[in-house]
Amino acid sequence: MDIELAKRYFLIGFVVFFSLIAILFGVYLLLFTPTLYLKLLSALFLLLAVIAFFFNTMGSIYFYKSYLYRNYKITPLERFPSVAVVVASYNEEPETVEQTINSLKALDYPREKISYYLLDDSTKPEIVRELSAFCKKEGVALQHRDNRRGFKGGALNEFLKGAKEEFIAIFDADEMLAEPSFLRETLCQFREGDIAYVQTSKRYARGSLFANTVDSTHAFFSNFVQPSRAHQENALFAGSCGVLRTSIVKKLGGFDDCVVEDAAFSLKADISGYRGVYIPKVYALGAPIENFTGFAAQQWRYNFGNTQLIGKYLANFTKLPARKHMDYITLIFGLHYLSAVFIIFALLTVLMAFADVSTAQMMVEKLLVPLSIKFQLEILSALSIVTMLLAALIIAKVYFNSFTIGFIAYFLNFGVAFVRAKAAVAALLNSRADFLVIKRNGTRGMPFLKALRLSAVETTFAVLLLAAAAVLFVNSDISSAFWISWYGLLFSSPLFFAYFTG
Q1: Most buried among 109, 210, 417, 433, using CB within 10 Å?
Q2: Could you tell me the residue ranges of all domains in the chain?
């Protein structure tokens, strides 16, 4: 058997096995807990286990199907269509934007067939002036807006009004070209007229250990989710490092007023019968995300935008074939799952630890089961924590050759749980999409008090968990105190991430 395939079978088996064990354990507890209070706790644990099983199974499917993806072939171009190379920016450092555009001028493509555009929504006068001078000097067409209506999608819609090129290649302001053959190898994928876009792998340049860990969290999407979706012609447009067919974008009415305009456009193209192609190759690298606030801001945007997609998805539910629904449910609700399940599991662990188990003890004795119901609930909680940690460590070691990256990634997921949850609530309440906007530049940490203010909700939650653990420890409930302390440590991670990385 192929070694790579064997690795995937092992990891899939590991995750699915422990997910099933959690469900069976939850069913058992629900059946044999005698009090209403404990039955409610067991029912909630079972519900979380079922939800986790769904998303873990989808992850396993992506993990396997990505191995099968071969639905693209790079061939020489028969002709050279006109291309608009577009860079979108918003209050980025002018030097970064200029370096990006200069790197894109190294594209291996007939110069007369390329036009360069900068779509700048910057609000700082000094940035606007410097970028304007740069564009004038370098022959780059500049589109500047005084408002951010529609965010990046709005800027692209404004550009589309006058776009005459056949294709539009989009890059973010900090994505440096790494492979000059980008246009030749993406444009040759537009063989059929129903292909709306070609997306390539989005990754970040190497940086600190923290930055490399952030990159590894995105690598799962680029390396496994995208190829798997592309295997059934359901690849996502990811907003940059991709090329769109101008005529189809215009026909579909451009981009939606949504902070994840890329995913929204993918959905719109899909329900209209158009396809996307994915090339699992890195052609450009974004600037490394060196601080926690940058990562948190990114996760805020993703979950805010994914929540906005719920209505669009439900309104078009019947227009999608059944095989694609699982992909969209995973896309739209995946981050919601990661945030809600982590927070609720921690709360349930506390409720379980303070449960009155005297009646349960009597039931256990009657059934001759050697362990108390409460202790079995603790085992279920511990199983969840340990399984997630082991999965993160094993995947990181197998694919990134680093247990350390897996360990940090495990803490990062808990660290942004409340950020994701707050973003979802903000979107449901139709609050400002830029509620949390934090620059990701810089590598230094921040003053402790500032980090504390930034992580106030998470730190408060962590302190309450640690206080509960202290009470349990004083009352000699060592096992409960240990697991609740572990949750407290996990949810205090935003404070330390922000303090040490910024």
Answers
A1: 417
A2: 83-288, 334-501
Question: The tokens of 154 are what?
Answer: 């709005």
The first and second tokens of residue 280, run together, are 């699992």
Interval 39-50 mean pLDDT: 86
Q: Which regions of 20-103 does DSSP assign to beta strands (E)?
A: 83-89
User: Rg of the Cα trace of the chain?
Assistant: 25
- 113 neighbors 198 (Cβ within 8 angstroms): no
Secondary structure (DSSP) of 354-408: T---HHHHHHHHHHT-SS-HHHHHHHHHHHHHHHHHHHHHHHHHHHHS-HHHHHH
Per-residue pLDDT tens over the stretch 98-122: 999 999 999 999 999 999 999 999 9
Using alpha carbons only, what angle is made at residue 295 by residues 292 and 296, rounded to the nearest 5 degrees? Answer: 85
Closest of 461, 448, 463 to residue 495, by C-alpha: 448
Here the contacts of 44-47 (C-beta below 8 Å, separation 24 or greater) are 44/344, 44/348, 45/348, 45/377, 45/380, 45/381
**Chain center to CA of 125:** 33
pLDDT tens per residue, range 358-397: 433 443 444 434 445 566 666 666 666 777 777 778 777 8
The class (CATH top level) of 83-288 is alpha beta
**What pLDDT, in 10s, does the model give residues 138-147?**
999 999 998 8
Please provide the DSSP assignment of 140-198 as one string.
Answer: -EEEE-SS-TTHHHHHHHHHHTT--SSEEEEEETT-EE--TTHHHHHHTT--STTEEEE
Q: Are strands 242-245 and 167-172 parallel, antiparallel or unpaired?
A: antiparallel
H or E element, residue 238:
none
Largest CA distance in the chain: 85
Instruction: Tell me how far apart the alpha carbons of residues 160 and 146 are, in angstroms, rounded to a whole number.
Output: 18
- Mean pLDDT of the region 450-472: 94
Which residue, chain included where needed, has tokens 């190379």? 85
Share of the chain above pLDDT 90, in %: 61
Q: What is the pLDDT of residues 167-189, one digit of tens each?
A: 999 999 999 999 999 999 999 99
Whole-angstrom distance, CA of residue 51 vs CA of residue 334: 10
Residue 253 falls in which region: left (phi positive, over 0), alpha (psi -120 to 50) or beta: left
Q: Which residues pair with 119 in a beta bridge?
A: 88, 143
